[in-house]
Design a protein that fits this description.
The protein has 7 helices and 26 strands. It is an alpha+beta fold. The strands form 3 sheets. Strands 15-11-12-13-26-25-24-19-22-21-20-23 form a 12-stranded antiparallel beta sheet. Strands 6-2-3-4-18-17-16-10-14 form a 9-stranded antiparallel beta sheet. A 5-stranded antiparallel beta sheet has the order 5-1-7-8-9. β16 and β17 form a beta hairpin.
């Protein structure tokens, strides 16, 4: 195989593919399969949980394929990404030599014929905007707990497809987040659900830029595809997911409306003094007082933010990440916080109700 490619595009492609390589248990899965034919080069990766396949333009002098260690190739390509010369690759079954300007690198090849066939993409069920997909996953993923989950559902993002809307859900024992996005279903009355591992899925959706993404769903996997790339990820088999809709739909007696950025920035300033302890919100008739810390420790911080309150005033205590994750998920100018009583769950929502985040505060002192 002999090819020439643009170095920055190549570096970006192999970096994205590297998210789907495996560890040393199966050495062949630590590699990236490069295949050249016609006027394109295809890069493939597979780690038994997810797969990646993408193409880029290339000047192909000799078609062929090679399997190279993914991490080493990505690091080498990153070091050449800013070169103005074309990156040239010449491969044999034993090694690949990369030349770019004055730089010459030779990488020992892995056995390309041992690389397994990638899973076939799932049957397409519709298309979703790439930006909506990325935003939705980034908003609900923080509510999951993939490290030592109490239940399997805490390690996944759930997709609830209902007609022309998808509800994305993430949850653990103490919080839950949902985001509703429009999409273009293959059939108007589409009804189905899927569960994908949150860590891999969060990385996967970042690879898609502008435009639409074709969503495929089968009993065992979910696939995402654009014109340039296709990725698949295995589904978790969860027979009964928590019924989240009734709690999120229940009206709460007290509501607070506040500017999202103002409250978020106030909380981030104050939590510098929290020392891994709680941050407190004192909700008054027309302002929220945010404070944390103690002068007996590193010190204390406080700030106030104007708000509109409908209902009772109260004091709420939070673990800082629980509050910050919820506020960062709101992408509207103002945030609505629904409450019942101190120590009972709260509901943080965007003003358009597309995003909702339920969290349990700490008990009142």
């Amino acid at each position: 195989m002999k090819i020439s490619v643009e170095p920055s595009l190549f570096a970006d492609l192999v970096a994205r593919a590297g998210h789907h390589t495996s560890g040393p248990i199966e050495p062949v899965l630590a590699g990236l399969l490069l295949e050249a034919d016609g006027a394109t080069m295809t890069v493939s990766a597979f780690n038994r949980e997810s797969s990646f396949r993408a193409t880029m333009p290339a000047e192909v002098a000799e078609p062929g394929k090679t399997l190279l260690p993914g991490r080493l190739l990505a690091d080498a390509a990153k070091g050449l990404a800013k070169r103005h010369d074309f990156l040239q690759m010449a491969s044999t079954t034993a090694e690949t030599t990369i030349t770019c300007g004055s730089a010459v690198m030779t990488i020992r090849a892995l056995p390309a014929d041992d690389f397994p066939a990638l899973p076939q993409p799932a049957a397409a069920v519709g298309t979703v905007d790439a930006a909506d997909l990325r935003d939705a996953v980034s908003q609900v993923a923080p509510a999951c707990k993939p490290e030592k989950p109490v239940k399997p559902e805490h390690a996944v993002v759930r997709m609830d497809i209902d007609g022309d809307e998808i509800t994305w859900v993430g949850a653990d024992n103490y919080r839950m987040a949902t985001r509703i996005t429009p999409w273009n279903p293959g059939t108007p009355d589409a009804r189905l659900a899927a569960h994908v591992p949150v860590r891999a899925f969060r990385d996967m959706v970042k690879d898609f830029g502008k435009g639409s993404v074709t969503l495929g769903v089968s009993d065992t996997l979910v696939s995402l595809a654009s014109a340039e790339q296709t990725v698949t990820i295995g589904q978790y088999q969860i027979d009964e997911y928590t019924d989240y809709k009734p709690r999120l739909a229940k009206p709460l007696p007290t509501t607070v409306t506040v500017e999202t950025e103002a409250l978020l920035e106030a909380v981030k300033r104050v939590v510098l003094f929290a020392e891994n302890q709680d941050v407190t919100l004192d909700i008054g008739p027309d302002e929220i007082s945010v404070h944390a810390g103690d002068i007996a420790g590193v010190g204390r911080g406080a700030d106030t933010v104007p708000c509109e309150v409908g209902g009772d005033t109260m004091t709420l205590r939070f673990q800082p990440p629980f509050l910050i994750d919820g506020l960062e998920g709101v992408h509207t100018e103002k945030t609505v916080i629904g409450m019942t009583a101190p120590g009972r769950y709260i509901l943080i929502s965007s003003t358009d109700q597309a995003f909702k985040y339920l969290a349990v505060p700490l008990r009142a002192r």
